Amino acid sequence: MHIDVTLYPSELKRIDQKGKTIVVIDVLRGSSTIIHALAHGCKEIHPVPDVKTAWQKRKTLNLTITHNQKNKYVLIGGERNGFRTKGFDLGNSPQEYTAEKIAGKTLVFTTTNCTKTLKLCKNPTEVLICAFLNANAVSKYLASKKRDIIFALSGRSDTYSMEDMICAGMVINEISKSCKVLLSDTAISAKIIYKYYKGHILKGLLDSFHGQYLKKIGMEDDIILCAKAGRFDIIPRYSNGLISLY
User: Fold this and answer.
1) How confident is the model at residue 227, as a pLDDT?
2) Contact in structure between 32 and 226 (CB atoms under 8 Å)
3) Both 107 and 188 in a single domain?
4) Which of 4, 168, 185, 203 is 20 to 30 Å apart from 131, CA to CA?
């Protein structure tokens, strides 16, 4: 089993994805929010790369909703630079995605980094969404499949994010316990940085550049939530433009 890690989205353009599993990680906070929404009953998520497309997508989806389905309307959520986009129903805080707000609903979702990474996944065998919240479930699944893996870190504005690297390292470390693996240099680096922060995941998130930024703008509670490893035993999958549970 060969395991590689791409440090930011544009690296996916140069990688042969065919026959591999891509694991998209955006710990702070895109993938964490996706996991939280689906764990609380969201029906499906339509990730889109920008705000304009998000509005257009919701309009298109709303045209398919009949009067008898009015309680299953389409919500629009996401952020730019950490803040909820003006006019959106929800932002990018996992805490907003409660069962009361999201259960049974369809969500159109756009973020600064995560949704753009998803759109660069072109022809892999499958695409999974991972964060600390579901890292244990993802680790077990990947170990059982024994397929080549690319951990696609969403980063921050197409640059490296330490918190995503720590999460990839956690999953790689778990897979390595039960599988024979061949690690790229970036995968080895991910294991090393995870072991440095093992048992202190929250510190790793707070030490990161983006963690410091979120704390500065008053979102430390989100960081604390996103650091809770293994909270949900679910694996979101991205296929044909949709994110849903397997």
Assistant:
1) 98
2) yes
3) no
4) 185
